What does this fold into?
Amino acid sequence: MSQRKIDNNIQLSQFEDYLLSTEFSNALIHDDGRAAQQHLAAGRPIYYEDPHYPEGLIKKYPNGHRQIVTMDPEGRICVVRDL
It folds into this structure.
């Protein structure tokens, strides 16, 4: 599986590319939040948009900590600020 670097130590795989795809985004229209809760419960962060923070995505960690982040053209996640 091909991978590209994010944050100097996180790898974005083809599967994760699929998760960011339009097809997956369309599936989220019917999302009840269960998948996000499962990711958090498994110790993985989730990413989502919030209209109150148009400067980037919200990255929420399992402990509840949140950050505004952006992705540069090379696929690296850049922290804008903590919330």
